[in-house]
Design brief:
Elements lengths: L5 E5 L5 E7 L7 E5 L7 H15 L6 E6 L8 E6 L2 E6 L2 H5 L1 H12 L3 E6 L2 H6 L4 E6 L5 E6 L2 E6 L13 H5 L9 E5 L5 H8 L4 E6 L2 H13 L5 E5 L2 H7 L4 E6 L11 H16 L2 E11 L6 H12 L3 E9 L18 E9 L1
Parallel strand pairs: 6-7, 11-12, 11-14, 12-13, 14-15
Antiparallel strand pairs: 1-2, 2-3, 4-5, 5-6, 7-8, 9-10, 15-17, 16-17
Helix pairs in contact: 1-3, 9-10
């Protein structure tokens, strides 16, 4: 069978279990689409996308994740809505074979003026799929301005990370309100600055944005401007190097790195990376300062993430857990699919010994 073909799944005794699509070269050979014997066609995708939209209940305005792969029982498919534009990301052969059907179903349910395919990801590479980004409907400009919560952000739907913005941190950024007033803030792995911009909006005295991408920092600078905020400092640097080389302390440090653990084989290596990162960050955090820290790997268990921070702080500081965080509800967690809970976050108060 060819990768991406639809197959019927049966038990050892021949009982019908469902329909999915196969990839004999993948670690997950079959990804299930339905437990019922139904056609996988445009009507199927229309119903799934409509259900995903209904479950979100209009609580996110015009900008949010409409479909979050397995969380919405559409494995391999992500659809993000930015005003009247859709960014669609397909990461498996099964969904690649359904690409035209998905686009048609998305148009019928969401009526977008613009659609861009953001088909560049490590998951596509693992599946042996080509990397590309293309506008398939409309005349989308590289950047557009969207309102998310109380602020506006420039997003690059064609070449920005993922689909241009990280909706999964929406609620977590709002929590900076309780820590930002009068604070000096360090936003590491800042990307286009959403955490730091929120902190400044909520009264931070100054925010330092650190990212390795010049383009991301340019957008972060623009995001301050369009929200009429000041007090930003923008530094192009590897976050590890920045934390190691300097001595200035900050009242609030935010660590939102990319995933250190792409597979089970990388768990130990990734854990060492998290310990090193937190050791370096803690030395730049002022006494009685606050730390927002995250892991976006589903391979990282919540308790283990706590343990790694504790190890990093051993004999140097007392770390108080104020709150545990997770992903925004437009990235739903399905308890019967534990892998759908990938984002783990901690809000910590740190007291030097």
């Amino acid at each position: 069978m060819r990768a991406g073909e639809l197959v019927e799944v049966q038990s050892a005794k021949g009982a019908f279990l469902g329909i999915g699509y196969i990839n004999p070269q993948s670690l997950i050979m079959v990804r299930m689409l339905t437990r019922r014997r139904i056609a996988i066609d445009e009507v199927f995708f229309e119903k799934r996308i409509s259900n995903a939209l209904k479950w979100r209940g209009g609580q996110f305005g015009e900008n949010f994740r409409v479909v979050n792969a397995e969380s919405d029982f559409l494995p391999g498919l992500i659809i993000d809505k930015y005003e009247d534009a859709l960014a669609i990301q397909i990461v498996t052969w099964g969904m690649e074979h359904q690409k035209e059907t998905i686009i048609a179903a998305s148009e019928r349910v969401l009526s977008p003026k613009n659609i861009v395919l953001r088909n560049e990801s490590s998951a596509r590479e693992e599946e042996g799929l080509p990397q590309n980004a293309q506008v398939v409907k409309g005349s989308l400009k590289q950047e557009m301005t969207v309102r998310i919560g109380p602020l506006r952000f420039l997003v690059d739907l064609i070449s920005g990370h993922k689909t241009g913005f990280y909706f999964d941190q929406r609620e977590n950024r709002l929590l900076t309100r309780g820590f930002a007033p009068g604070a000096t803030v360090l936003d590491c792995f800042s990307y286009t600055g959403a955490f730091g911009v929120h902190a400044l909006f909520y009264g931070a005295r100054r925010a330092t944005f650190v990212d390795s991408s010049v383009r991301a920092l340019e957008l972060a600078r623009e995001n301050l401007r369009i929200n009429k905020l000041s007090g930003g400092e923008f530094i192009k640097a590897d976050a590890f190097d920045f934390l190691k080389s300097g001595s200035e302390e900050y009242d609030l440090v935010i660590l939102d790195p990319p995933s250190f653990i792409k597979s089970k084989k990388k768990v130990k290596e990734g854990e060492r990376g998290y310990i090193d990162l937190h050791k370096k960050a803690l030395r730049r955090l002022a006494d009685s300062g606050s730390l927002f820290t995250f892991s976006c790997s589903h391979h990282m268990k919540r308790q283990r993430f706590r343990d790694l921070v504790r190890i990093a702080a051993y004999a140097k500081a007392d770390v108080y857990l104020l709150r545990e965080l997770t992903q925004s509800p437009d990235h739903p967690v399905v308890l019967t699919i534990p892998e759908t809970e990938y984002l783990k976050g901690l809000i910590l108060r740190v007291s030097r010994r």
